[in-house]
Amino acid sequence: MSGEQSRLETIERPEEVSPRLVERMLEGDLSWEEWRQLLKLPRKDPDRIHKYLRALQSRVGFADRILMRISDHLYIVQSPAGRIVKCDCGREFGDYRVNWKLSALVYIRDTAPSITEVYRCKDFAPEPGWSEVREYYCPGCATQLCVEVVPPGYPPIFEFLPDLDTFYRDWLEQPLADAASDWYTDRTTCVTASWKD
């Protein structure tokens, strides 16, 4: 039996999904057959989320506890300042209840030449005047964090506001120490309203 076959057999049992296998998932280092085996498991091992969070934590250069990953390079972390959004590089974007895009660098493509730099097929490109392409970048490391196509003047889309207290309390059965009823509240308008003054 080859090494590949024996490795595949060990992941058929959920209790044996190792932290190293979770790290390999994050690295994109699994074969299609290994992915299929994982998808066919009758149930996930109960501590898989903790293995995943530990693997994420080992990949970043900051000590703040990762509570949840929200994109390829952004995390909600528990910091001394509270729950905030943080980039791989350590750049802080502030309270996770406020749309992190308000603290990002933005490049707007709103002309035909700038749009066709990233859309090679003009038939499928957003039409200038009707749409704009917004690219959001981290001010700390210049990593592209997100792209959205919206009508001109449309507010930045707040894609994800998780109810962390419910997730940790009801799903993981490990309530967060700073749980409070106001954590699951979009506070973006509180920030933008202050800009009028």
Could you explain the architecture of this structure?
It contains 7 helices and 7 strands, in the order H-H-H-H-E-E-E-E-E-H-E-E-H-H. By secondary structure, the chain is α+β, with helices and mostly antiparallel strands. Strands 1-2-3-4 form a 4-stranded antiparallel beta sheet. A 3-stranded antiparallel beta sheet has the order 5-6-7. The radius of gyration is 21 Å and the shape is globular. Mean pLDDT is about 85; it is low at about 1-10.
Secondary-structure map with pairings?
Elements lengths: L2 H8 L8 H9 L4 H8 L8 H12 L5 E5 L4 E6 L2 E6 L4 E4 L9 E5 L2 H5 L15 E6 L6 E7 L13 H8 L16 H7 L3
Shape estimate: globular
Q: How widely separated are the two ends?
A: 71 Å
Sequence of secondary-structure elements: HHHHEEEEEHEEHH
Strand order of the largest sheet: 1-2-3-4
Number of DSSP helices? 7
Mean pLDDT: 87
Radius of gyration: 21 Å
Main beta sheet: strand number and arrangement? 4 strands, antiparallel
| Class derived from helix and strand content | alpha+beta
**Helix coverage percent of residues?**
25-40%
Low-confidence regions: 1-10
- How many DSSP-defined strands? 7
- Which strand-content bin applies to the residues? 15-25%
List keywords for this structure.
globular; alpha+beta; three-stranded antiparallel beta sheet; 197 residues; four-stranded antiparallel beta sheet; disordered N terminus
Quick rundown:
This protein is α+β, with helices and mostly antiparallel strands and 197 residues long. The protein is 29% helix and 20% strand.
